[in-house]
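agent> Task received from the user: take the single chain below, predict its 3D structure, and emit structure tokens. No templates, no multimer pairing.
agent> Plan: (1) validate residues, (2) run structure prediction, (3) serialize to tokens, (4) report one or two observations.
agent> Step 1 OK, no nonstandard residues flagged.
tool_call: predict_structure(input=
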Amino acid sequence: MLGNLILEDRGKTTSIRILPDGKMEQTSQGQGKWYGVESTNISTGVSIMRPDGTFAGEGHGFIATKDGDMITIKFNGVGSPTGKGWAATYRGAAFAQTASPKYAQASKLTFVWEYESGENGDYTLKVWEWK
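)
tool_result: status=success, residues=131
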């Protein structure tokens, strides 16, 4: 069952490159709120196109809150193109780790997320606790 919305983030893809093995690497940076606290978020994911035209991907990210807390994220998901250019939608699961006592519970949870990107590289990300 979906729990609380714990991150809502908007940002921009800052880099895309194609790796020698045919995978696509994408780095994004955005601003949002992690458990209601303003945060800056950066992540890099690597995806491969599957024979049916969908993507399978995984990656890592960092969340830095305005209070100085740091959270690392590992995520996996699947996606599909939604339009021209790099527009796509992804859905998946994520796991967090942090040394921050304030967010210690995050290291014990699984999260589900949805990511929507547009042709111009803008994106929105929403993350929920999975209970």
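agent> Step 4: summary for the user.
The first strand starts at residue 2 and ends at 18.
agent> Done.
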